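With this grant's support, we have settled on a layout for protein records. An illustrative entry appears below exactly as we store it:
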Amino acid sequence: MKNNVVGLIAVRLKSKRLPKKALAELNNLPLIQRLHERLLKSDLLNEIIWCTSTNPEDDPLEKIAKTLKAKIFRGSELDVISRFISVSDKFNADTIVRITGDNPLTDPEMLDYMVKCHLSHDAEYSYTEDLPSGTRPEIISSSALKRCHDLIQEPNYSEYMTLMLNRPDKFRVLKINTPNNDVKRPEIRLTIDTKEDLKL
C-alpha cells in the first residue's frame, strides 16, 4: 500500500529576534520561496503545504503562496500540532515531514533518505543530529502526531512538538545517521533566527 508522504512547512511572520524573517530576501527571493523551491527537489514528497496561522499578520505568506501556486493551510496560531493534524487529515497524509520556515537550506536528499529509513523501520518519529543545524527535517507518522497532541496538556507547548515526540517511552523513535560523511557537520549552524544568521 502506498504511503502518502506530505511535507509541512511551519511558518509564521511573528518573530521577535528577526521580524518577518520568512519574507527576508535570500539571494533576491523571499526566504520561504527559497525553501519551497528546495523541497521541490525531493522525490518522495507528494505534497508541500505551508502551515501558517489565521492571524492577519500572516496574510503576506498567503499572497506569496498564491503567486507560486503553492498550497497553504491556515489554522490555530498557538496550537501548532492541531494545525498539522488538520492538514494531515485534509490531505490524507500517512507520513508527515516537518520543516520549519526558518530553515531554507533543508536538505532534500537527506529528507528522502530519512523517509525511507522511517518507513522501513516502521518508526513513528525519526530525526537526525548529523547535519548542520537548519538543514534537518523530522519525519512523523500522522497517528503518532495525534497521540502526541493528546499527551499535551497545554496547547502553547505544541510548538515544541519535537520534545514531546522524542520520547522512546511513548513512541517508536529512530535516530538516523547520514550515509554521507561530507555533510556530517552538526557543529555548523545554518538556521535563520537573527540578522547575523541571515548575513551568514
Q: What stands out?
A: The mean pLDDT is 92.
